[in-house]
Write a structure and sequence with these properties.
The complex is a heterodimer. Chain A is built from 6 helices and 10 strands. By secondary structure, chain A is of the alpha/beta class. The termini of chain A are far apart. Chain B has 8 helices and 2 strands; from the N terminus they run βαβααααααα. Classes of the chains: A alpha/beta, B mainly alpha. Strand 9 of chain A pairs parallel with strand 1 of chain B, so a sheet runs across the interface.
């Protein structure tokens, strides 16, 4: 059986982590996978400033940053309406003392949380997963992010009416050309 | 009434990785591992610097008490040493520094300024540091047993236990899908 093969050449990454050595480690891994050198920041505010004028294909963010929770940065990204940035896959890197931030990161709209220490296998497989497994993007109340119902999570609370959006040019463009649908399914 | 909207975006990452070409997984992992190995020597120095930084806070403590800022800084240093030790396979350092983090986190949560349990861990860290002499006989087990006794005395919940408990709880966010 042939093994997985991903073409990661040209994939751009934004890496936000407070520790310079960890940033170096992750950068080595990404380059080993054939990706571009990541754009790196240690603080959430700097990452925000960068993202106001730049795009990334993948975002890796530490669960706790020196100036904000990683979840706050993720929420800001997910609320960038009419901007394809909001759909970007986000992987949260959680240190040992940050494990209690897992649910907060998930609730903020992260695609997945990965525990440090990172191995190349773990990082590669998670990049493959967020790139290859399609997940709808959900907006419901305070939440905006990838649909989490691929897990056995309870049904949404307080949602009385479901709407999908169809043929919305702005959204279609923001989604990178994908079809988005619009139908009230009350 | 809460509205729910669903989009089906095809991300640029999804498009790029499916292009022809690229390298097989094993090759990519080997290449990444080579890159990490280049940092092995540097990692030992980083761990040494981290331990020295923690020692600095403890040695500077007055009346065997640490200010909360120092505790927070120790926790940050401990967290990064866990990452380094795990990445480069320093098993003893990993065990000792996780215990340090658990105790320090517990002290912070309880509002205690007690430097003593941190000092015990720092002495243990120094014994197992990359540039220290190899431990003799069953010293490693004795060190870990002593740290376990310290942790048991304080009865703090470890970060791993906290995370497991949280994972069992439903999401705190309202209206989540």
């Amino acid at each position: 059986m042939s093994q997985m093969r991903l073409n990661l050449h040209g994939v751009t990454t934004l890496l936000v982590d407070s520790d310079h050595f960890t940033r170096g480690l992750v950068a080595h891994m990404l380059r080993g996978f054939g990706m571009e050198s990541p754009t790196v920041f240690s603080a959430g505010r700097d990452a925000k400033d960068y993202l106001k004028n730049h795009m990334a294909d993948l975002i890796l963010v530490e669960a706790v940053l020196p100036d904000m929770e990683g979840a706050a940065l993720i929420r800001w990204i997910r609320r960038r309406e009419k901007n394809p940035l909001r759909f970007v896959p986000i992987i949260v890197l959680s240190g040992y003392t940050q494990l209690d931030r897992v649910s907060g990161s998930r609730d903020a709209g992260a695609n997945i949380v990965v525990k440090k220490p990172l191995s190349p296998q773990v990082l590669y497989d998670h990049i493959a997963w967020v790139g290859r497994v399609p997940r709808p993007f959900i907006e419901a109340g305070e939440f905006a992010g990838p649909d989490r119902r691929f897990k056995t999570l309870p049904p949404p609370g307080g949602i009385e009416r479901r709407v999908t959006v169809e043929d919305d040019d702005d959204l279609d463009e923001a989604a990178g050309g994908s079809a988005a649908a619009a139908k009230a399914v009350a | 009434m809460t509205m729910k909207r669903t989009y089906f975006p095809k991300t640029r990452l999804s498009k790029l990785i499916e292009r022809p070409g690229g390298m097989p997984r094993d090759e990519a992992l080997a290449s990444a591992q080579d890159g990490i190995e280049e940092m092995r020597d540097e990692s030992a120095d980083e761990i040494e610097r981290g331990i020295a930084a923690i020692e600095g806070f403890v040695f500077a403590s007055a009346k065997n008490e640490l200010p909360s800022e120092a505790m927070t800084a120790i926790l940050w240093q401990g967290d990064r040493i866990v990452t380094l030790a795990g990445t480069f396979g320093y098993g003893m350092i990993d065990a000792v520094v996780r215990s340090l983090c658990d105790v320090t986190g517990g002290l912070i949560r309880s509002g205690s300024r007690d430097a003593a349990p941190i000092a015990v861990h720092v002495r243990a860290l120094r014994l197992v540091a990359p540039n220290s002499k190899p431990l003799a006989g069953d010293d490693a087990e004795r060190i870990l047993a002593e740290l376990a006794r310290v942790a048991a005395h304080y009865e703090f919940t470890s970060f791993a236990q906290s995370a497991a408990q949280l994972a069992d709880q439903p999401s705190a966010a309202a209206g989540l899908p």
